[in-house]
Amino acid sequence: MIDISQKRVQRRRAKATGKIILTNESLLRIREQRVEKGDVFQVARVAAVMAVKRTPEIIPYCHPIPIEDVKVNFRLGENFVRVDLEVKASAKTGVEMEALTGLTAGLLAIWDMVKKYEKDEAGQYPRTFITDVRVVEKVKEE
Length: 142
Hints:
Blueprint: E1 10-21, H1 24-31, H2 40-53, H3 55-58, E2 67-76, E3 80-91, H4 96-118, E4 129-140
């Protein structure tokens, strides 16, 4: 771990975004709320928030941070679902790893919810993938 004991607590914020490319069937089922496993966005939101809070258990050198807020938003596109996530904390270190961890967990939860509709005849996922995962903003307030 990096020694952050001499750093001062500051307001921190990070935003991350990413997409999951899906078949038309999955997207239609999501739009019409006809996914057998349940509400895709509710499950993905909970998965994302849980992952943000557990980031230090997943990423070995991340410091435990008192998370103050997590916002998760979804947008259906022509062939994708986009997830935007924002994390806020007052801490001695940034929250971008928490944002990325939450984002990817949310995207994976979406995949899990619709995987039944994504498989081809051989049980593979040739048209499904997660892409464009990145930190779009990292802020440290003085």
